[in-house]
Each structure stands twice: as structure tokens, then as C-alpha cells.
User: Fold these one by one.
Assistant:
Number 1:
Amino acid sequence: MNMHVEVAATVPVAAPAEALDARGRRVAEAAARHADAVDREGRFPAEAVAALKAERLLGIQVPRSLGGEGASMSEIAEICAILGRACSAAAMVFAMHHIKLASLVTHGRDSAWHCTLMERIAAEQLLIASSTTEAGIGGDLRNSLCAVEAEGDAFRLTKEASVISYGAQADLILATARRHPEAATSDQVLVALLRDQITLARTGVWDTLGMRGTCSDGFLLKAEGVPLVQVLQKPFAEIAAQSMLAASHLLWGSVWYGIAAYAVDRARAFVQGEARKKPGQVPPGALRLAEAANELQAMKSTVVAGLARYEDAKGDPDALGAIGFSIMLNNVKTTVSGQAVDIVQRALGVVGIAGYKNGTPFSLGRQLRDVLSAPLMISNDRILSNTANLLLVQKGSGKLLSA
Ligand SMILES: Cc1cc2nc3c(=O)[nH]c(=O)nc-3n(C[C@H](O)[C@H](O)[C@H](O)COP(=O)(O)OP(=O)(O)OC[C@H]3O[C@@H](n4cnc5c(N)ncnc54)[C@H](O)[C@@H]3O)c2cc1C
């Protein structure tokens, strides 16, 4: 049975006023306790997500007028980094939820249906998943094969969604599709599908090297009788350029920063322990630690500069859609995804066997496996070839302190 969102039924819940990162740290404690089991069993980080809901962190980006807390991208990025230190999968679930919510907040505010949905997200702490990847299209976000098939004021959709993280646990999926069955593959829209409006038949199991707890199984997604008002009016091309690209690269980058920062912490603790054992001698790993810390600082600067550029451009569609802005975001992604892998590997080199073994205070196996997903999560080569196309028409300013 289809569920329609009742405008009058939603009562915004007062959000706790406590600092967001303190709430994030409490979730991180819960996430860290279960992170090894989540990874080993390839299971959903249920405890961490329950803690996110208890701390009401799933609705923080929703505007205050709709019952949320109007949190900025930078505030959300900080929580991604805090969670990334504890459990990469829980951090990625939080990041992906807020990437989708960014599209609703940026592009859904002129639609009564989507405003009511945002009220529900804040009040009921609904979890949002993403379906862009499709069989036959792969990671090419800006093309779809499946199409919205309208009948009267409702539509149906069938999508071979080869990867949907926590698709089985989500309350809501935002999916890309062609605008209608005759539309070009690049003429896409973004549709909001509630859990009880869809069926998901599992077509692939997420048994991977890392990020195992994201449970990113493949599904045949089918929706019938969905009201057409659930289709976001803005073309997906604009949604991607003005909200999704920025949110994805900045929040993913923040999760990877958290993973890398944890690895450097472990390496630092290891080297400090060695130094205590042999007072007066600088342990040999200290030099490698200095290199890892150096690269971590460069990684942090890249993410922070990207966030600052985003906060400046926010609310200005021209600035958000500018070629230079897209190139900057692409560069943030390709740069920090590579740095994150490199930093964790360097930290492992410092720690040695104690890091390679599972179950020691310095184990880094899980972090290394998780962070290896970063360059693949929308392939860096695909992003670089997009940047290459943009560079053909960009005019550079050459200035240090401005775009
Ligand atoms: C942890 C994790 C969670 C994910 N969660 C989701 C999710 O919730 N929803 C979702 O929809 N997707 C999700 N994805 C999928 C993701 O968004 C990408 O679709 C996926 O990583 C791309 O997979 P692919 O390697 O098959 O890529 P493809 O992009 O199909 O690329 C395959 C290969 O071809 C190369 N290639 C392709 N095109 C080009 C080009 N133009 N130039 C140069 N090289 C090219 C690539 O380098 C790569 O080697 C997730 C992925 C990960 C790792």
C-alpha cells in the first residue's frame, strides 16, 4: 500500500541545543564499540545509527522552520570526521544520508510535498539512501537508463540499482531516472521514494574488502503508483551541480579524513611508546610519522578550503554552477581520496606488525581496507576525465586568495 505524507500529521520535535560535535562524539563511542563486529560480519552499523537517531543527528540539516537545526555543511563535515575515526561504515552512512538531504534542502523548499517530507525527516529521524548507480551505466552519475513512467498524476519506476548502500534499512531512497521513457539518458530527474512505495529484490550481495557495514547490496527497485509531486522539479543536472557534487566530495572527504587521522593517532601513540622504552633516543618511526602528519595536514587543508569555498558560494546558483567551482570540488575528491590511502599506509609502515595484526591497540587493517574504497567511490579516473573536459573551457585567475 502506498503511503502519502500527511501535511498536518507532522509535529516538529524540539532539537537538543547541545553542541553538535559533542553529540557526534557520543555516537562515535557507540560506533567504535561495534566497528570490528560490523566489519567482520558485514552488517549494518545498527547501534551507531540508533545512536544517531537518539542524538537526533539525522535531521540537523533540515531548516529550523521545518523542525530541524539548520546545520551547515561544515558542521556536518565535522561530525563525519568524528565518526570516521570510530567506524568508517557508520560515518559513511551518516555522510550519504546528509548528501541526499542536502539535495532536498537546496532544491525541495518550493514544493509542499518535499517540505513535509523534510519535517518528517527531522521529526521521525528518517534515514535516506541513494540510488544513482545503475546496471549498464555504472558510476556515471549524469546518465540513467531507467525512466519515470507517468500515468495520470502518478508514476512507476523500475531500476536495476547495482549498488544501494543500506537500501534494506533506509526509510527513503532518492533515485535518479530519465524524465520520461523517450528522454535522453542525460535528461534526468531525482525522485523521492518512501519505503512502502517500493519493492527491493536483492540482486547482489555486498561482500567486499572494506566499507563492509555500508551493506551496499544490488537491488531491482520497483515503484508503482507514486504521486508525481514526489519528483523534484529541478533537472538533476542542476541538483548535481548545485548541491550533490559539493556535498558528496566534501562529506566523503571528511569521512576519509577521520579514518586517516585515526591512523596517524595510532602511529603517534606507537612511536611515543617506543620513545618511552628508550629514553634519549628518537625512534626510527618518528621520521615516517612526521611525513604522515605532514600529509594529514595537507589533506585537512584541502577539505577545509573546499568547505570554505562551499559556504561562500551557498545560496548562489551561479557560483555553485561555475566551472571553476566544479573543478575545485573534483580536485578535492581526487586529491584527498589518494592522500587518505597514502596516510593510512604510511601509518601502517610506522606501526608495523602491530598494525597488520587484528586485535592489537594499533590494528589498522580495517582502516586500510575501508579507505581503499575512496579512489573507487566514483572512480578518480572518471572524475579526472570530467575535469579534463572542464579545463578545455575554463579561464584561470591565477590568484592565491580567491577563485
Ligand atoms: C562504499 C561505497 C558505497 C556506495 N554507495 C552507493 C550508493 O549508496 N548508491 C549508489 O548509487 N552508488 C553507490 N556506490 C557506487 C559508486 O557511487 C560508484 O557508482 C561506483 O563506485 C563506481 O563503480 P565502478 O568501479 O563500477 O565504476 P565505473 O564508473 O563504471 O568505472 C569502471 C571503470 O571504468 C573506468 N572509467 C569509467 N568511465 C571512465 C571515464 N570517463 N574516464 C576514465 N575512466 C573511466 C573507471 O576508472 C573504472 O576503472 C558506492 C560505492 C562505494 C565504494
Number 2:
Amino acid sequence: MHFHVWLRFYGELNDFMRPERRGRGFGHQLRERASVKDTIEALGVPHPEVDVIIVNGQPVDFAYRPRDGDRIAVYPRFQSMDLGDLPRVGEPVPDPVRFVLDIHLQKLASLLRLAGFDAVVLDDDAAIAARGRADGRVVLTRDLELLKRSEVRWGYWVRHTDPARQFLELVRRFDLARGAQPFSRCLRCNEPLRAAARDEVLDRLPPRTRAAFDEFHVCDACGRTYWRGSHYQRLRQFLESTLDT
Ligand SMILES: [Zn+2]
């Protein structure tokens, strides 16, 4: 049996749409009575990006099965769009926000850690989805199929490809400026840093650094020592300019 529905995607969900479907309603032929979740994902939109679904003026959940003639409006998460008290299909993102990223976003993970955010990197899709669900982490990826996995509860498709622009994108989308704690986390292994006295780290420092700095942090997981050298100044400028925008 074939039947016809009318769909419209709002806001950032248009990023997943073919150009002729962006910003306007379009007719769509369904061959079988799949759930509205499967219908939306078949059109290219991963379910974690969806917040509210309205069918013929009434909110529905992901399990709703569209009927012939339905008019379906789909609204995004992760952007400031006031939808009032409408029932959501997505659960609120845990606060403070934590992330699990696929291996292709390693540089973005380093920038998130630089700003103090918990950002785990894994290379296996099943492990990423499971970790996100178990820990309440937002899955970050550019792989749409990963986001469509049913275990993914919180997830976001990173639009940009350049790491600095990706970071800025996340700052805006997840309102990261308010939760940032720069230079509090190891860039290599994601563990929180602790302050250390010069005596403790002396033998790990280049000679010039020993004399020039008196504030040090160490990662107990990997033993790396951090101090406020020229690299630090550059990164601080990057963070300040990004978090202020
Ligand atoms: Zn470390």
C-alpha cells in the first residue's frame, strides 16, 4: 500500500535536506507504515537532532505511525527556538554536558579538553553509542549512520570540517561558554589536572622552564606536566576569542 504525507523540517534540520526541500513543505510517498522516526531518518535526519514532531497540529512521539494525508512538522534540538511546553521526543541533555567523539574528531576533542570539557574519543561505532548511553554523553560525529543507531540518546552531527570552526559551532550550539574551565584537563587523555609544586615536576622540565615558571599542573594518568609557556598564551587567546563570541 502506498500513501502520501506532507513534511516540513525546520531550522538546522534543513542541513540534512536536499536543496529543493529546504525551508518548505514537500510531499512524500510512503510504501509501508513505518514509524515517524524511521520516516524522518530515511529522509536523512538522525533522530538525536529532532526535538518536537507535530502531526496535524498535535505533538506525537517517535513511535507514531503516519497515516495517509498527515501533515508532519519536525523541529530541531540544539538551537534557540522557543517551542513552549510542547512534549519533546528528545530527552534534555545532561548538565554538565559531556561528550564522546568518533576518532575522526580527535582535534575537536583536544579543543574541548582545552576548554575543560570531558571529551572521550573512541573508534568503534557500537562502543561510541554504548558509552554515550551509559555515561549520558552527547555523541559527536560527522557519520550520520552512527547517529541513527537506536542506542544513541543524545547526539549531534558536527557541521564544519575545520577543528577551530567545529569548536566554535559547539560553543554556540551547547552554550559552552558558561561551563568552560580552561586548562583544567589533560589534552592527551582527558583526565582532570591537579596543581603541582615546582619541586615535584622539576626533573621533567626543560632547564629554561624551571626558572621561568612557578605554576604547574600534572596529569596523574599520563604524567604530562603543563605550564603557562608561549603555547599556553596562544591557546588562551584562541579560547578567549571563541568563548566570547
Ligand atoms: Zn594525561
